[in-house]
Amino acid sequence: MPPFHLTLRSAHRRHITHRTFFTDTTTTTNRVRDRGLDHVVEREKNLRPIMNIKNLIKSEPSKSLPISLLTKSRHSLQIPTRPVDFVRQFPSIFQEFLPAGLSSVHPHLRLTPQLLDIDAREQLMYQTHSYSHQAADRLFKLLMLVRSNRLPLNVVDLFKWDLGLPENYVESIVPEFPDYFKVVTGKPELEMVCWSDELATSVMEKKAKAKGAVPAAFPVQFSRGFEMDKKMKKWIDEWQKLPYVSPYENAAHLSSQSDESDKWAVAVLHELLHILVPKKTDKENVLALGEYLGIRSRFKRALLNHPGILYVSSKNRTHTVVLREGYKRGAIIENHPLMDIRSEYIHLMNAVKEDDKGVSSKEKKRKRTKGDEDVKGEDVDEDDDDENVEELGGELRDSSEGEVEHDEVDGGEDEEEDEDDDEEEEDRMTSIVMNDANTRGRRASKSNFDVTRPSLSAGRGGSSQRRDWGSDNAERGRSGGEYPGRRGNRVPSATSRRTQADVRHNFGENSREGSNRSRSRGRSSPDKKTCV
User: Which residues contact 131 (CB under 8 A, 6 or more apart)?
Assistant: First the structure.
């Protein structure tokens, strides 16, 4: 066994999944993920169960079936979640409806016209002679890899999807090629009729023959971030130099623990994945074939010791064996009409999801624009309120000054008031003025609370200016008593006008009384000085 010691670069630790494998010698390895090949596996997620449901619906005479029937066949259809939730994820694939005239039945499913159009082209592809001949060759080569040249139908069904066989291949392809295979009576097995030396040539042998060389080394490509020590590199170089044993040859003479046997097992897996259309298959399928051939442990060891040839992906809650040679930069190299049809299915599956993303982004943009317009509207209201308050403040100042001047002219008639009365009036006037000032201050602080808050928050950035208290209060006074930023606390316009009139009246009376007191004190003070 090779000394499989791997180290990992710290720069790629986030792309690394540590998976432990145990072989006969308890060798532990760390595998490095390949993001491109993982994407290849992940993009076909849910495609298999959708195709299974599609075939089941097509098999019904009414071309529809109740959703409750999917629950009973969930495991055979490979549905990963609750069937009702699963089919509702793909409205571009399945249509849910209630049969006419039956109100108490369960909802039914049928296929959409878009899906039926793709399915019709797929069926036409299966019916062409060229495709049927290629599918028969792939199935024939699979039987040639088996020592007994026969396989149970349940094992063939495991590779039916990857071989590109139609659902009814036993009734369609097998009878069409009677010189290739036949179904064994009494046993559900498919048997090869005669050997073909032309088809018993591996891909490695064809490439070597084209170059005029002998096949030996496999193409190797490791994932980014994969490193090996000198001991491991030396073993791989020596392993590649071993003679190539064709997968179609009988390797019973090779020791199961030898490197030659290990290279033959890799050759079998290499040829098997080349036969398959997508160049990949589930790991369970590989191990099931190995179980039937009696070389399950060799297959497991080959998958463990040769990650540069065979990549094992853990996406989609399963393990998928991918032939690295069949892909380049996350795309399959060999074009095939079946893969084009499946790409159309995948595009139709994701069409509704992409539309939902587009609608959600448009809604977010519309909401964001509406919010900006609301903010702008509030700013305009605040500016109008500020202008109204400024005008109101000017009117108050003008009226008070005019009344004070008028009182100064008429103030000579009150010269004989007593000093006690003046003190009482002064105290009463001071309390009234202070009450009016406090009232106006509380109103201004309430209305200015929400206006100054953005200034404080903007001041943290160092670029905002503080708004003037007088201008804010003046602007709000002219707005009819409305306080921007305070929802549900609006003062009616009529009430605000009465309040403004009361303030002007109180302010005028206080000013008139104050002027009278000042003149009375001014005339009486010289008499006091004279008496002294």
Answer: 125, 337
- In the predicted structure, residue 454 carries a pLDDT above the cut 60: no
Alpha-helical runs (H) found in 82-181: 83-88, 113-127, 129-144, 153-158, 160-163, 169-176
Q: How far apart are CA 246 and CA 226, in angstroms?
A: 29
H helix runs in 276-418, sequence order: 283-293, 296-305, 337-409
Calculate the CA dihedral of residues 236, 240, 242, 248 and round it to 10 degrees.
Answer: 120
Band of pLDDT at residue 402, cut at 50, 70 and 90:
very low
Q: In 3-state terms, what secondary structure has residue 184?
A: strand
pLDDT at 446 over 50: no
Number of other residues whose CB lies within 10 A of the CB of residue 516: 20
Q: How far apart are CA 382 and CA 384, in angstroms?
A: 5
Given a contact cutoff of 8 angstroms between Cβ atoms, the answer to whether 417 and 520 are in contact is: yes
- Please give the Cα distance from 507 to 514 (Å, whole number): 11
pLDDT value of position 6? 43
* Cα–Cα distance measured from residue 176 to residue 137, given in angstroms and rounded to the nearest whole number: 12
Q: How far apart, in whole angstroms, are the C-alpha atoms of residue 403 and residue 174?
A: 115
